[in-house]
Amino acid sequence: MPPSPLEITQDFLSKAFDPALVADAADRLVAEDAEYVSLNFDNPPLQRLMPWAGASKGRQAFVYTFTNVMTRWNLEGFEYTDTLGDDRGAAVFGTFTLRSVRLGKAATSPFAVVSRVHDGRITYMQYMEDTFATALTFRSGGAWTIEADPDTDERIEV
Fold it and tell me: Into how many domains does the chain fold?
């Protein structure tokens, strides 16, 4: 019996955060014309911090994303809290902890991954995380002043 879409997705994710393994995993498990959505569809300010953010096409987009993630952070933990799958795809939920290489700051974030699989290969993957938390691991000084509540003049310094 061939592996299920959930097993294929988990197999890829188990190797994605290792720069020595991600290219081989993509070759075996990702369709050549697959689409990858990282964090959002298009956000130029976020792409300045995380150049892989956005929608991209091709197997190399998967390799590019995870290779670059691992140049900026060290993965300290990655675990599943829930998984779902059927014959067309999978959803994987969990938490991870990353520590920024440059500043040594850590963040723990929930994540959600959805994938579509056809003929034993991932054809679409979307990866979501708490980008506010992970971006804060790059903050080296200064404050972000946030005004979110329309009913007050409260300013929050982060």
Answer: 1
